[in-house]
Design goal:
mainly beta; four-stranded antiparallel sheet; seven-stranded mixed sheet; 11 strands
Length: 122
């Protein structure tokens, strides 16, 4: 059973940065694309970013493009989300997830972490 554990969330002022990490317990981490999603207060969970198995291709939601960067280190079974120029509207619980494919995409995620809270104050 693969487990995903997020870390790095916290409280930060607008304009600052945070880096989230998600470590997988599975042995086949490099076989799968990974993604980040978020759920703000009173909102449904939505797509943030996706990265393919090798880290050569990424996809971003329009709301974070140019501010957030997804990356991965397959040797460490870890995917990262670097978040710069944070805004209050980025406040949410952030989840990492494993896709049932090696390629980037916004759906077909079958394994989820427990989430980490990110709060951006104005």
């Amino acid at each position: 059973q693969v487990q995903l554990v997020e870390s790095g969330g916290g409280l930060v002022q607008a304009g600052n940065s945070l880096r989230l990490a998600c470590r997988s317990s599975g042995r086949t981490f490099s076989d799968y694309a990974m993604g980040w999603f978020r759920q703000g207060p009173g909102e449904e969970r939505g797509f943030v970013a996706s990265i393919n198995w090798s880290g050569s291709r990424m996809d971003y939601a329009d709301s974070v493009k140019g501010r957030f960067t997804i990356s991965r280190d397959n040797a460490k079974n870890t995917v990262y989300l670097q978040m710069n120029s944070l805004k209050p509207e980025d406040t949410a619980v952030y989840y990492c997830a494993r896709r049932s494919s090696a390629f980037v995409g916004r759906d077909r995620y079958d394994t989820w972490g427990q989430g980490t809270q990110v709060t951006v104050s104005s």
